[in-house]
């Protein structure tokens, strides 16, 4: 989009940054060093870059949240911030002001001066726009799945009727159907708006935007062009920085062949199970949220747990860890599990919200925490921590506070902390969300390495590519129940044999 020559730049500018210099107060190196950028009114801009490249930070600078609301060392020669904007953050919980769904939208409407008599119909309208057709919208936000929370955050942003929508990975926790629905709504409702989008899953949106900006790991703007130009002429650069594009999985398949050896013991059902589940029910506020029949998990299985948002996938993992009220029996290596403390030394658990499990003041201490509790020698701890930080691209951030990391870096830290202790069973709730392609593949390859050594994985995911390539078995959950349990596409087993094709 180019402004006519007869009009001033200011008239068509939505935002401008000239010679931006920024660093986090806890770090010595600059993230942006001389970055300059103009955003024109009505442009649809997609911002790409590896995890930790400053995409979310740049959005906060353009909106004025940095430094007006978030104080960090920052300088610029010239800056024009967005005037009217609605923001959907990476973590939707961080932006909610009210405890109930309807009250969250009503809070926005009240500040917009909407008459109380019109609020009920407006609340219903905005919720329906994002696929939240509640029979009763007066329900606790805390009862929603993370995907449903992302939809609610978008509804709140739309209720502001902003000139600009700022969307920071608004579909990271949505199932494929929900992702398509949200982007369809954005395309329709954002047709006359300026859009600033950070997203890793670009298939649904790349044809809608008219401009793509690519940042490298240091926050330098290395590409600024149309979607066609970026995808056709800069494919090798996207691969180098680990940025998702339409052929990322094919490139990965060519470079990394998934092996089935050395562990296919799970095919032998005569072996004692690692995990046994017998008629398990999990409850939130005395209401059943997940029900499981009698199922067994063998050593070395990679079970992906799939299903729509709100189906009960995360609740299943919480029930297995005894973090919610349960009925029925769960056993690990034949021993009944009665509380979380009993299995903490045997099961690694990764929450959907990584920040919920951090206990230390530095990245190094977070990874070392479990090893220190097990009283391993300091030299052995140092060696193991250094290795895992290097494998997950966190070595340079060893002294950083976990809460100062980007969402993608926090997720990698939570996975690293779970893997370093060599648990027999890992429960993983969306371990690859918010990751660029390079880090997604690194996480998956590391998990496969552990599986091949005998670790069993129960992993919630919405990514069908992961299910197809990595799952030895698939649990389909919907409506709080296990609807299907079948072998993954990865292994084709001839009937009556243990032959793996």
From TrEMBL:
Annotated localization: Cell membrane
Residue span, ABC transporter domain: 15-243, 275-501
Keyword Translocase applies: yes
SMART domains: AAA (SM00382)
UniProt xrefs under InterPro entries: AAA+_ATPase (IPR003593), ABC_transporter-like_ATP-bd (IPR003439), ABC_transporter-like_CS (IPR017871), ABC_transpr_CbiO/EcfA_su (IPR015856), ECF_ABC_transporter_ATP-bd (IPR050095), P-loop_NTPase (IPR027417)
GO cellular component: ATP-binding cassette (ABC) transporter complex
Name used for this protein in its record: Energy-coupling factor transport system ATP-binding protein
Species of origin: Fodinibius salinus
């Amino acid at each position: 989009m180019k402004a006519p020559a007869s009009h001033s730049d200011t008239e068509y500018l939505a935002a401008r940054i000239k010679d931006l210099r920024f660093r986090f107060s806890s770090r010595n190196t600059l993230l942006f060093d001389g970055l300059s950028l103009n955003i024109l009114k009505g442009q649809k801009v997609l911002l790409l870059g590896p995890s930790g490249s400053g995409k979310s930070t740049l959005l906060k600078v353009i909106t004025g949240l940095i430094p007006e609301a978030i104080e960090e060392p920052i300088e610029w020669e010239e800056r024009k911030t967005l005037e009217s904007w609605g923001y959907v953050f990476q973590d939707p919980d961080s932006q909610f002001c009210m405890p109930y769904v309807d009250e969250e939208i009503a809070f926005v409407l009240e500040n917009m001066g909407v008459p109380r008599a019109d609020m009920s119909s407006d609340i219903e309208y905005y919720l329906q726009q994002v696929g939240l057709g509640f029979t009763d919208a007066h329900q606790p936000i805390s009862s929603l799945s993370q995907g449903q929370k992302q939809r609610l955050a978008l509804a709140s942003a739309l209720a502001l009727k902003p000139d600009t929508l700022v969307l920071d990975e608004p579909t990271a926790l949505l199932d494929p159907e929900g992702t398509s629905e949200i982007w369809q709504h954005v395309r329709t409702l954002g047709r006359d708006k300026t859009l600033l989008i950070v997203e890793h899953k670009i298939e649904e949106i790349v044809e809608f935007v008219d401009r793509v900006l690519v940042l490298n790991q240091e926050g330098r703007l290395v590409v600024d062009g149309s979607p066609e130009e970026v995808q056709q002429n800069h494919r090798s650069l996207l691969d180098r920085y680990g940025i998702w594009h339409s052929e990322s999985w094919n490139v990965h398949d060519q470079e990394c062949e998934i092996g089935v050896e050395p562990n296919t013991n799970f095919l032998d059902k005569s072996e004692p199970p690692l995990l046994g589940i017998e008629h398990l029910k999990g409850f939130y506020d005395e209401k059943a949220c997940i029900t499981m029949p009698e199922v067994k998990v063998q050593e070395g299985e990679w079970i992906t747990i799939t299903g729509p948002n709100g189906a009960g996938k995360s609740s299943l993992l919480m029930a297995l860890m005894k973090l919610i009220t349960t009925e029925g029996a769960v056993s690990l290596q034949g021993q009944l599990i009665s509380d979380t403390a009993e299995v903490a030394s045997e099961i690694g658990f990764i929450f959907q919200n990584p920040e919920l499990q951090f206990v230390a003041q530095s990245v190094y201490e977070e990874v070392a925490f479990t090893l220190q509790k097990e009283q391993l020698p300091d030299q052995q701890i140092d060696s193991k921590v250094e290795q895992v930080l290097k494998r997950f691209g966190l070595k340079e951030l060893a002294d950083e506070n976990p809460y100062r990391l980007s969402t993608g870096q926090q997720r990698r830290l939570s996975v690293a902390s779970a893997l370093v202790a060599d648990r027999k069973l890992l429960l993983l709730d969306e371990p690859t969300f918010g990751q660029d392609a390079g880090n997604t593949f690194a996480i998956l390859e590391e998990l496969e390495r552990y599986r091949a050594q005998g670790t069993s994985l129960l992993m919630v995911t919405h990514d069908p590519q992961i299910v197809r390539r990595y799952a030895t078995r698939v649990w389909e959950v919907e409506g709080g129940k296990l609807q299907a349990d079948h072998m993954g596409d990865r292994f084709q087993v001839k009937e009556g044999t243990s032959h793996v094709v």
